[in-house]
Amino acid sequence: MKKIIVKEIYPVYQMEIKKTDFTKSIWDIVDHFLQKVEEDPIAELIWIFEHYTHTKKLNWPMVEGVVDAKMIVFCFGSKIASIPSLALKPRSFSIIETEDKFIIEFMEAPSDEAVKKMTNWTKELLK
Questions:
Q1: What is the pLDDT of residue 77?
Q2: For residue 46, what pLDDT band results from cuts at 50, 70 and 90?
Q3: What is the average pLDDT value for the chain, to the nearest integer?
Q4: What was the pLDDT predicted at 78?
Q5: Exposure pattern of 87-108 as b/e (b: 16+ CB <10 Å)?
Q6: Beta pairing partners, 104
């Protein structure tokens, strides 16, 4: 797993899994994250967004080689610490399938505990 900066300001964690080293499907990955959100005492599932399907339907451009893309949108909604803190929620995992790999990404959360959970949940895919 690595941390990258997108558009010069957005810290994003990214993990790539080669299909040759992995026997699961994109839906298996989605199910993994859904289970983690469900098991967490404060996380709440908001939606599964089928980004690839949506983009295809609109006939908008897509990165070459992408064969599917889904997002799991959820919130670690334990408190409202301040009004601006709501602008930093919710969280999401993006799962991109290309011809030869899966790419799992999430943007860094303001909470170190949330980042740790999301990092652990992502790394557990390799077990």
A1: 80
A2: very high
A3: 95
A4: 80
A5: eeebbbbbbbbbeeebebbbbb
A6: 15, 95
pTM of this structure:
0.93
SS3 state of residue 121: helix
The sign one gets for the Cα dihedral 50, 51, 54, 56 is negative
Long-range contacts of 107-110 (CB under 8 A, 24+ apart): 107/10, 107/11, 107/12, 107/13, 108/3, 108/11, 108/12, 108/13, 109/76, 110/85
**pLDDT (mean) for 18-43:** 97
| β partners of residue 102 | 17, 97
Confidence (pLDDT) at 33: 98
Rounded Cα distance between 53 and 69, Å, is: 8
d(CA 118, CA 33): 9
Sign of the Cα torsion 121, 122, 123, 127 reads positive
Q: Which amino acid makes up residue 18?
A: K
Is the link from the previous residue into 110 a cis peptide, with omega within 30 of 0?
no
Token representation of residue 32: 């993994």
Report the distance separating Cα 36 and Cα 121, nearest Å: 7
